[in-house]
Amino acid sequence: MGRSYGAARAIKGLDFRLPAGSRTALLGPNGAGKSTLMRLVAGVLPPDEGEILAWGMRPSEARKVPGCLGWLPERAPLNPELTVREHMTLAGSLKGLGRAGTRREIERLTAALELGAILNRLAGRLSLGTRRQAALALALMGEPALLMLDEPSSSLDPAEVRRLNALIRSLPETTTLLVSSHALEEALLVTDGALILKAGALAAAGGWSDLGKRLGSERRPEDAGFAEEVFFRAQGGVTC
Q1: Cα 127 to Cα 95: distance, rounded to the nearest angstrom
Q2: What is the DSSP string of 24-80?
Q3: By C-alpha distance, which of 195, 214, 211 is closest to 203?
Q4: Which helix (H) or strand (E) segment is 11 a member of?
Q5: How buried is 172 (Cβ within 10 angstroms: 0-12 exposed, 13-18 middle, 19+ buried)?
Q6: For the chain, is the Cβ count within 10 Å smaller at the N or the C terminus?
């Protein structure tokens, strides 16, 4: 699979599989292609080389199937003239949840993310952190089978990050998670493996323990600094 922007190759010959129920971190430095890969898997950007399949469907088709895909983009577009509740109601309708299902999801996510104080506020009047929380709720509605989160902890304060991580850990075992993050240790806490990109290509992939062994790390996943060391070794860097 590949994707170019003019003469620039953003994604180069990627070939990987996300097993059902897996929790995978998507890591890489700025410009490595993480957000482009997220857009490809989410079906909002077509590959110009190879194909992507989700349950035998192209992502653009899977997006139309209720309960298939949930996506939090790095810069989630929210209508400044709609309240958070109105955004969630619209998302529930688009995901085919029905009135009762939408109401239950609004109640569930309002409690889990502590959205009560902003539920009836216009999106255009929210801080960056609360906008991020609202966009996260939209991605989580309906408990999608494949959930993609692009820098989910961006702009969140420490308490919001803790709630986010607790919510991710509470996802159904059948949920497949792909989470892009620069917060390496946080990513390690909520995933069981990683895809590590370098200049649009796959530098390393696998379960955390396996990655550590293959990249020559003497640390274990539970050791401080493990994720950072694995990341820099995959990039060809030197760590202490």
Answers
A1: 26
A2: EEEE--TTSSHHHHHHHHHTSS--SBS---BTTB-HHHHTTSTTSEEEE-TT----T
A3: 195
A4: strand 8-11
A5: exposed
A6: C
pLDDT bucket at 29, cuts 50 / 70 / 90: very high
Residues forming beta bridges with residue 24, ordered by sequence position: 178, 193
| Domains of the chain, residue spans | 3-234
% helix, strand, coil for the chain, step of 5: 40, 20, 45
Q: pTM score, two decimals?
A: 0.91
| R_g of the chain, CA atoms, integer Å | 18
Q: Which CATH superfamily is domain 3-234 in?
A: P-loop containing nucleotide triphosphate hydrolases (3.40.50.300)
CA distance 83 to 121: 5
Residue with tokens 């240790």: 185
Round to whole Å and give the CA distance between 142 and 98: 11
Report how far residue 236's alpha carbon sits from residue 56's, in angstroms, rounded to the nearest whole number: 35
- Please state whether beta strands 193-198 and 8-11 pair in parallel, antiparallel, or not at all (unpaired): unpaired
CA distance readout (Å), 217 to 191, 214, 227, 232: 19, 8, 10, 11
Decide: 217 and 226 in contact? Cβ < 8 Å. yes
CB 150 within 8 A of CB 74: yes
Task: Quickly list DSSP for 105-136.
Answer: HHHHHHHHHT-TTTTTSBGGGS-HHHHHHHHH
Report pLDDT digits (tens) over 154-167.
Answer: 889 999 899 889 88
